[in-house]
Amino acid sequence: MKIEYRLKPEDLRNKLNLFWELSAEKIRLIEDQYDDTKGSPVFTAGGRYTTRGWTEWTQGFQFGSALLQYDATGDQAFLDAGRKATVRRMDRHISHTGVHDHGFNNISTYGNLLRLMNEGRIAENEWERNFYELAIKISGAVQAGRWTKIKNGGFIYSFNGPHSLFVDTIRSCRILVVAHMLGHALLAENDEKISLLERAVRHMAATAQYSVYYGEGRDSYDVSGRTAHESIFNVNDGNYRCPNSQQGYSGFTTWTRGLAWAMLGFAEELEAFQLIDDRELKHLGGKVELEKMMLKAAQATCDFYIANTPVDGIPYWDTGAPNLHRLGDYLGKPADPYNAWEPVDSSAAAIGAQGLLRLGKYLKDRHRAKEGEKYWQAGLTVIQSLFDYPYLSTNPEHQGLILHSIYHQPNGWDYVAPKQKIACGESSMWGDYHAREAALYLQRVISGDRLYAFTGCVQGS
Fold first, then answer.
1. Does domain 9-457 fall into CATH 1.10.10.10?
2. If you placed Cys at 114, which of 91, 402, 411, 457 could pair as Cys (CB 3.0 to 4.6 Å)?
């Protein structure tokens, strides 16, 4: 991609204003038109949200979007809607033992509500605070209980089963970290006390080791920064077996949304570790070494994104997609969501932009200005493209906010409109939500307010 080094956050102020105006319209459309009895909204078909998926991992994004809208605009109606829906609809997600998505669903809802209370945006209420904290504590413990041991640690296994490590789950580590910071632990047989922080750290380490490549000769396709969506293990002896992919083209190519999850996941955990006492991490290698591990993964993945994304910062769905060669010099020109061969994935851009910004700030705060500036400006460049035509949805009848998102290209789940050869023009609940997160982060940069972070739901952090 071509990084715009002269771009400033303030230059995007007008885009942000339009973004939040359109965001409000989309949230209202879904609330008025979507049939909740069909399950959680996942992605659009013909501009209307539909449900389809392996598990209901997107409901937190639906209600969390209303909370972010309130945060950004102060419109009380969105707080009321988000809070009411969280209380009424999110309880089953707290105790769900069959998924790896607790950090997605519950940080987006209970976590955002608790953060807003900590920031004084919601009136202090002891019972309400206790309710949100209890939800996060239980969710963190339940997620930590979904555990596979391997020879050098362990990981939170995906819904595919104990053999499966997903790169996505790096972002579910947030729920373990926050639950730990709130003073909770997982109790097992004979009252064994299991540290949620330790399980989060070991999962991060497994992701850094097996999901991320560093160009160190691991296999014939070891390109620095590329990621594998799924890593497969032998559960009998804990040995790693091979890379795989569910939503990407193959285990030896890079599904760009998985890449983006790693970019953001490692960057925001680097921020979180600044709030954790080194004494709590000493037996896990110490804060310095753990931060080196996470920084290496964050920089590698962000560098790969920059090198393998078209000039405008919007990636295609997989960097090894089989028909990319038919697009000619696709990296040397803006991504074309209406091409005849391979879809772009705007949701990867929405997630990755925030990772780039957070990594850039982390490095600049540590007097590594030149490195930090590259990632920071890359994040601004992505947002500049994403919050404009053809990605920002201005059609008042389309329920989606960010267009040209892809869910599952290999399974053929995405809607292909008449006269189109590929899926395009549609939105996803995760893409819309993470665009709102990125917009809120940037808005607070411009206003000088405390930056949006998942650790904000811990009082005094």
1. no
2. 457
